[in-house]
Every structure is written in C-alpha cells, then in structure tokens.
Write a structure and sequence with these properties.
Layout lengths: L2 E11 L5 E11 L3 E5 L6 H8 L7 E6 L2 E2 L4 H5 L2 E4 L11 H11 L6 H10 L15 H13 L5 E5 L7 H16 L3 E6 L2 H7 L2 E6 L2 E7 H8 L1 E8 L16 E2 L5 E7 L7 H10 L4 E8 L2 H12 L1
Parallel strand pairs: 3-8, 3-9, 6-7, 7-8
Antiparallel strand pairs: 1-2, 1-4, 4-5, 9-10, 11-13, 11-14, 12-13
Helix pairs in contact: 3-5
Length: 308
C-alpha cells in the first residue's frame, strides 16, 4: 500500500526555544484510518497543523499525494480536508450555504449534487436549509466534516472530532468515519478517547513530548504488547501473599479476597497450572477465576509513563 502522506525528519520549534515536534517521521497509507494518541501538549495538533500548512516546519519535509507542502502548497492543500477541534461556524447561515462556500474557497465549481451526497452521508440532508444556530453540538460537528469534504479531498484530518459529544453521538460519528473510509478517504484522527481508536483505527500512532513513540497495526500492537490478568477469588481474605507464592509477583485485590496474576500472552507457557497447584499447597482455596486482556488504554498509559 502506498503512502499518501509522508513526513520526514520534521521539527517545529518556536521563538522561545520550545520544540513542539522533534524529528518526526511518519508514513500514512492510502485508504487507512490512523489514530494518533497522546496526552495534552504531546504535539498532536501541531503535527496536524504543520502537515496542513497552517504552521511552517522548522526543519524536514512533508508531502501529500506527492506534493511538497511548502514548495507546492496549493496542490498539497487541495488534497486535504481538516476538521478542527473548535466549532467556528457562521450561526445565521444555512448548512448548504456554509458547505457551498467552503467548496468555493478551494476554487471548485459549484456542484450541489455532490454536496447533497456528502450531507446525506453525514445524516444532514434534512438540515440543509436549517440555520447553523438551530443545530445541536453533534450536528454542528457533522457540518464541520461536510465543510472539510466539500472540495473532495483524498485525506481527512479529524482533530478531536468527538470532543464534548455524548456517547451515543460518538458512536454515530464512528459509523460516519467508517463510511468515509469505505468511500476511499484516508483518515487521520487525534483523540483522547482510546476506545475510539480501539473501535475504528487500522493503525495506532503514539506521540509524546513531540516525538512519535510508535506507529503500528492496532491488532499487532495489542498482540505484541498486551498482557492478560488472571483474577483468583479466594474463599477467605488474606493479609499478605504467602512467601511460597512470591515468585509469581501476585497482587492482592482491594478486599484481600482475590489475587491478581499478570502474564505475557506471547509466552510459551503461562504458568497458570503450576500457580494453581502452588496455591493449593499454600493452603489457599480458590472459588472463582476470571481473565482480562489488556486494552489499548493500558498499553498507551504504560508507554507514556515510560517516556515521562
């Protein structure tokens, strides 16, 4: 699969000496959904702004669809749709006129049939003649996406697209993103909601302190870095873990009536069988077992802590 966005040795620093991006390298593949995760101040929005030409790189190169974002700014920018975090729309304008105006800014000829198709994809058809001020927050975010798609971009950047949106609307937005991918749009989203990345992304990138820590296929990442936890419920609470079980690095549950055993899913052996034997030999009686797989959130939090 070919790269539609290529970022090489990108640095962005500011007058006071603050370095927001540090030698970032990133290849975004045609037709994928890439979720970019990172804590506040990690550099997510700066990276998007620099790729989109809103900020000028201090060093390095960026190309979109083969066009350099500095030398061929207009050609590169025409391939990009950007949905910002902030909702900044003209309240007294209608949805259709708002989207039509955005298309015109890119020099595209009027094509209401295409715009109506976009509004239909976003469940906005019945709102096309409504004024922006009459829309809910979730609908306004859909209008932002329609604006970003109005000039038929190949790449769509979504900067915190579901910030402040309730859970039901967030899941609706995931369906919208999946539909856009099916239509051939490459999507890059930043998000604080890790379940969002887990639900819809093909690959996951983690950025911290202006550096990309990894970019990897989501399923591979969870398989390689994921761990499982075995929760052992005991018949009686215990004050301390018996010395005979020290080699298993067990943790007591909050109530003292359970033990947590963490093991690597990639290991040849889990050690569970011997643990259960040793548990019985130590005089502990088990009444229940439960397993839990590490989530993407567990992996992300662990990586960012290591980088701190």
């Amino acid at each position: 699969m070919s790269s539609v966005v290529s970022v090489r040795n990108l640095r962005k620093s500011y007058a006071g000496g603050f370095e927001a991006l540090k030698s970032v390298n990133l290849e975004i593949e045609e037709g994928e959904i890439l979720a970019l995760l990172g804590p506040n101040g990690a550099g997510k929005t700066t990276l998007i702004s620099t790729i989109c030409g809103i900020a000028v790189p201090t060093e390095g190169t960026i190309s979109v669809g083969g066009f350099d974002t500095v030398a061929d700014f207009r050609a590169a920018r025409n391939l990009i749709g950007l949905v910002p975090q902030e909702i900044n729309l003209e309240p007294f304008e209608t949805v259709m006129n708002t989207v039509r105006f955005s298309r015109g800014l890119f020099g595209k000829p009027r094509d209401d049939a295409y715009l109506e198709k976009v509004l239909g994809q976003l469940s906005l058809s019945d709102k096309k003649d409504a004024k922006i001020m009459m829309l809910s927050g979730g609908m306004k975010r859909r209008v932002l996406i329609a604006k970003a798609l109005s000039h038929e971009p190949r790449v769509l950047f979504l900067d915190e697209p579901t910030a402040g949106v309730d859970v039901e609307l967030r899941k609706d937005m995931w369906d919208v993103v999946a539909g856009l991918k099916a239509s051939g749009v490459t999507i890059i989203l930043t998000t604080h909601y890790i379940e969002e990345a887990e639900a819809i992304a093909d690959r996951v990138g983690v950025i911290s302190k202006g550096e990309i820590l990894l970019v990897q296929d989501k399923a591979e990442l969870m398989a390689q870095m994921g761990q499982k936890q075995l929760s052992i419920e005991l018949s009686q609470p215990i004050d301390t873990v018996p010395e005979a079980l020290a080699s298993y690095a067990l943790e007591r549950g909050g109530d003292g009536q359970s033990l947590i055993y963490t093991y690597d899913t990639r290991g040849d052996r889990t050690g569970i069988r011997t643990l259960l034997n040793d548990l019985s030999n130590a005089g502990l009686t088990m009444v229940d077992l439960q397993t839990k797989q590490s989530s993407l959130e567990d992996i992300f939090v662990g990586m960012v802590k290591e980088d701190a």
